[in-house]
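forwarding from the other thread:

> can someone predict this with magnesium ion?

sure thing
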Amino acid sequence: MSNELPAKRRKAGGFFDDLSIHLYPAALSKIRQGIFERQIPQNGGQLVSSLPKSGQILVLIEDNAIEPARLQQIVRDLSQKHPNPEATYLGMSWLSKCLETGQQCLFDEFELKVSEPKPSESNLGKMTKKDEHPKESYVDRNRHKFVCAQSSSDEATSTHPNKLITDELEKLAGAYKNSNDQWRAFGYQKAITSIKNYPKAITNRDEAAALPNVGKKMADKIIEIIEQGSLQKVSEVCNNERMQVLALFNRVWGAGPKTAEQWFLKGHRTLEDLQNDDKLTAHQKVGLRLFHDLDERMQREECTEIYAHVQATALEINPNLEVVACGSYRRGKPTCGDLDILITHPKLDDDLEISSIFNGLLNRLRAHNFLTDDLSIMSEGRQRKYLGVCKLLKSGAKHRRLDIIVVPVEERATALMYFTGSAHFNRSMRLLAIKMGMSLSEHALVTDVVRVNKEKANTGTVIPTPTEASVFEALQLPYRAPNERNH
Ligand code: TTP
Ligand code: MG
């Protein structure tokens, strides 16, 4: 407790609730430090002034305007001088993003991994034109480790030798995610990935504890699963009323862990209770009304029928349209949560024409009574996007989520990449692009982006990427077909 600032300064229920945070002072300006020291407790977090030897702690390190090599050095030194298996190192930009968005953002892309020192470490950093040793940059040496550099079919995912262990741990990770306990969910997820990547069946505690991201307590759990076939903690955590209600509420389309928690705190316990809540958003009302249909993943064959209907309707507008079913469908999954359809044509460049195709298609689908509920209709840059619900025109058909996006041809490949996913694959590719001094979005791959305080100070130069293969090529990655992107 001696590490903690007075409890009275902490506000319960904020988005940093339950997080113990240490602000590492190196490279952190006094002004930013002052702001963060006020904001963390105001939003429920606990500031810890020195690094504890054990226990969960988020160590935030300034990653703003700091040389990547220096940042790596700081993380490495810290982890050696203050070894704590439960410490998570994040860039300070995670904190800025949380404060900006008013929510606890995912740790994923902000995590600062501890890498082994390498002989040419002075060459760490972004690969830019100014790089003096471009042939051996940090990114070059580490590119193969990025998820987007690997085929998902290469991964030992479904049949790895420790599946019993990861299945059990995944139940806990899921329960923590549903209850907005991001920290625990993140810790379990990292351990699960590490176990999945281990090629042999784990047989003893030391072997388990030697795995990256597996601490002593996690190793004990692994041994319990090996010896007992299951983990007592799973039933303790998952079988209580709160967790079961949160798991149910998380399945309502339009609700996430935060909303689920708020509903629980209001006293709601069942879907009927929610129906009487007059504070539901329009999306949540649709999610609730169509709960049983939208909660179920569709069989691929049903997706094919929905796709065929949208495609045929679009081709009535213009037979040259390219209509691609993306998302999990394009990645070849046997079941899909929704259907994501991308539309363009080889000359589509005029904003009026983009809108006309978009509106014309929606009007036709509405006239067929195929679209039953609109969730959002938006413009994102030059792209037009529809999120809604459809139902096949046959008896017994169920309501299904449908997303349609119409894009100009110059954004075709990056939009196709984004909309095909998976989300994890996309995150990894965006991160690699950033490390290479570029920026990747559904709109374009851009180079020479200058960032000041993580904000883009210039918009950079768009790299022409007419095909998906050209996006991979520009990032110096081997091409991966959609069914290899199921990470
Ligand atoms: P989704 O339809 O949400 O995902 P999916 O099609 O992969 O899976 P599901 O079967 O559950 O529908 O989104 C479509 C794509 O959009 C997704 O594959 C990748 C991209 N995407 C992101 O990159 N980040 C995100 O947070 C989301 C929600 C989607
Ligand atoms: Mg989808």
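The chain has five domains: 20-135, 149-238, 241-289, 298-416, 420-484. thats all i got for now
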